[in-house]
Amino acid sequence: MATTPAPKTYRVKSFGCQMNVYDGERMAELLGAQGIAPAPEGEEADLVVLNTCHIREKAAEKVYSDIGRLKREDGSSPLIAVAGCVAQAEGEEIMARAPAVKMVVGPQAYHRLPEMIAEASAGRRAVDTDMPAQAKFDALPARRKVGPSAFLTVQEGCDKFCTYCVVPYTRGAEISRPFSAIVAEAERLVEAGAKELTLIGQNVNAWTGEDGQGRAVGLDGLVRHLAENPDLARIRYTTSHPNDMTEGLIAAHGEVAKLMPFLHLPVQAGSNRILKAMNRSHTAQSYLEILDRVRAARPDIALSGDFIVGFPGETEEDFAETLSLVAAVGYAQCFSFKYSPRPGTPAATMDGQVAPEVMDERLQRLQAALNASQQAFNQASVGRRCQVLVERKGRHDGQWLGKSPWLQSVHFAGEAAIGDLVEVDMVEAGPNSLSGRLVATATA
Ligand code: SAH
Ligand code: SF4
Ligand code: F3S
């Protein structure tokens, strides 16, 4: 293989969940620290990192079409690195199927990108899908400038092994980053301009650690500590598992003002038979009881979830139970997916795989119900006054876009700047956003 000049410009494309967004930002910082610059908009980069997602079939197939699209007219390509969960799951296969790919790097190994780029430039293809928990964070450069709302990875991996899911295989076992490392990164992010931190992890509420006094703490202890930073205005966390929704965390929702009234708690299905086959270890009833307790602690909490339709064996009666659960909860927003068989997961070989057209039809009905629920939640917010964190300029002149405490997108006109916390009256609700009227600039 021929040698290539060392890359001068890069582009990182991230797919999938927030964890990948965070990893993509960290890879960009790492490349920046090597003197490689982001490629200007519209120009080809010397190095392209595809930070991939393996959660559903379509997501994984996309990688190969993206690789194809990077090919130039003369048949050559930029230096391509495949990172993320497809890299972890199918590293060798990618190398075999896509000769244009020179580097394959898993989600726990991307701190090694600089060495791998040197290898690839010298004409040697490089693969690293090792999973040393932790090592990567210690090897990454300090955080640089960030927007008003930043992600902070506190936990990685999953030990739950839901029967449909690849995450335990692509991200490895559950690990918690140490308290002190998280607190240090949070301080860095706040200094760099973050007003809101979203603590992220595949099972973020399974996070545990030891605080500065050596006391064992859970996510609620971490949240309480971070809330003491006077320059940090808002804290969120995602994604949670119902089994790790501790009393302490529920109580924190009622007691920590900076902890925003929003909870993303995936349920997946409303039928206990299906939940059991999914190995979810909660029932529809135990899930609803958790939500009752959260609502008791924080009555205005906005609820969100994930759903899968057409899991093997799902009957029309099972699906009807999903619709009943949706009606019972009154979600503010949700994600819903058709079941996608993933190689190597137990559900992929289960009896009773559901026909695609049945899945399509159920997904449509579910999404109609979820959209109606979201619209109703937004409609009920009209007349509320709340703080909005301004994240960017809106589409029209003088318009701003930000987030309400309930994670709704709110646009408004007037004097403001990115990073401001402003007081807004919500005046009109759409399905995906609200329009607001600026009241007065609050102290940020
Ligand atoms: N750790 C989180 C989220 C993991 S992936 C949790 O447990 O909730 C995000 C979502 O993708 C899941 O909640 C699930 O709804 C969906 N998902 C995962 N595997 C899937 C599959 N094989 N087919 C369809 N959807 C899937
Ligand atoms: Fe996947 Fe289940 Fe783990 Fe979530 S809890 S990441 S759905 S195995
Ligand atoms: Fe996708 Fe991996 Fe996240 S499979 S959803 S990028 S953990």
From TrEMBL:
Q: What class of enzyme is it?
A: transferase
Q: Pfam family example for this protein? A: UPF0004
Q: Where is the MTTase N-terminal domain?
A: 8-122
Key words, A-Z: 4Fe-4S, Cytoplasm, Iron, Iron-sulfur, Metal-binding, S-adenosyl-L-methionine, Transferase, tRNA processing
The Swiss-Prot or TrEMBL record lists the needed cofactor(s) as: [4Fe-4S] cluster
Assembly information from the UniProt record:
Monomer.
Write down what this protein is called: tRNA-2-methylthio-N(6)-dimethylallyladenosine synthase
Give the species.
Answer: Novosphingobium bradum
